[in-house]
Design brief:
Helix content: 25-40%
Distance between the termini: 105 Å
Number of strands: 15
Length: 303
């Protein structure tokens, strides 16, 4: 009998204990909810997560993008529960210069805004004279007044108001590819003044040193063409011929065509004469005149 009473007492005490624990947890939960509803934003901190040496955005632009009327919308002093972080992130990413945004409150009730800006690779000028930037994802970015970034320049870039078609996409691919190649080589960054985009979508280089127009055509194998151009530069430099040619044409495989003001200086395809795939035809001093075209006998020269 005593054992039965002890079991009943034990069960009662167990029930009372769990009831007390549950009640305590409920009190703590309600208290936490009430406390959370009364917590306010203590401060706002903007951080840029990219490693670019330049800034196309600043803290004030971020703040005004999120809260145009700071006196009413700025979250400092407002309850945390009233701040819709997801909606604010989507609003911030509407800025064309912002690639991604992440917002969160820390344990000190500080709102952190982590921003990754887009990285432009080229500056483009339209036929009308307006200017935009483009990043590696072909995103067209507006020019900002505080920009100080040095990038390859492309002229005669046309933006189709009806939308980008397949040909436009191909041109944009070639722009970003050539721009990234130029950016990776300090020599070409210093030498190439701008890249002209012709009506047939072919590219031409205008250079700082030398008066030549460099024709790239519609090719995209930038390393092959520009390494070949360096070789031509060495030959021109050795001959002191920087003012000798008006145009250097690189768009043909295994040959370079240099155009003088009064005729052509042609380096014909010499694939059969070369014993290496890394050789490119470079002219020697043997000149033949035929139909007003100067045909120069090529010699082999390693890249």
């Amino acid at each position: 009998m005593m054992k039965i009473k002890m079991n009943i007492v034990y069960k009662v005490l167990t029930i009372l204990m769990w009831t007390a624990i549950s009640g305590g947890l409920m009190v703590l939960l309600v208290s936490a909810v009430i406390k959370e509803r009364t917590m306010v934003c203590k401060a706002v901190q903007v951080d840029f997560t990219d490693s670019q040496p330049f800034r196309m955005l600043d803290e004030m632009e971020i703040i005004t993008t999120l809260w145009p009327d700071q006196k009413k919308g700025f979250p400092q002093g407002k309850k945390l529960i009233s701040v819709n972080l997801y909606a604010l992130e989507r609003q911030l990413e509407k800025n064309p210069w912002i690639f991604s945004a992440d917002m969160f409150f820390d344990q000190h009730h500080v709102l952190h805004i982590n921003v990754q800006q887009r990285t432009p690779v080229a500056r483009l000028f339209t036929p009308a004279g307006s200017s935009v930037y483009m990043d590696e994802n072909f995103t067209v970015l507006p020019v900002k007044m505080n920009d100080m970034v040095s990038l390859p320049v492309f002229s005669n870039f046309y933006i189709n108001p009806a939308g980008i078609n397949a040909q436009d996409s191909l041109v944009m691919q070639r722009i970003t590819g050539l721009a990234q190649y130029i950016l990776a080589d300090p020599f070409w960054m210093a030498q190439i003044e701008q890249v002209n985009i012709n009506a047939d979508h072919s590219f031409e280089l205008i250079t700082q040193v030398g008066d030549q127009t460099i024709r790239l055509g519609n090719r995209s194998d930038w390393a092959a063409m520009l390494d070949k151009l360096k070789m031509v530069y060495r030959r021109i430099s050795d001959e002191n011929g920087w003012t000798k040619y008006a145009t250097i044409d690189l768009q043909f495989k295994d040959q370079v065509v240099c155009i003088k003001g009064n005729g052509f200086y042609q380096i014909p395809d010499s694939t059969a004469q070369m014993d290496s795939l890394n050789a490119v035809a470079i002219a020697d001093s043997t000149v033949n005149i035929k139909n007003n075209v100067q045909i120069i006998t090529p010699v082999k020269s390693k890249l």
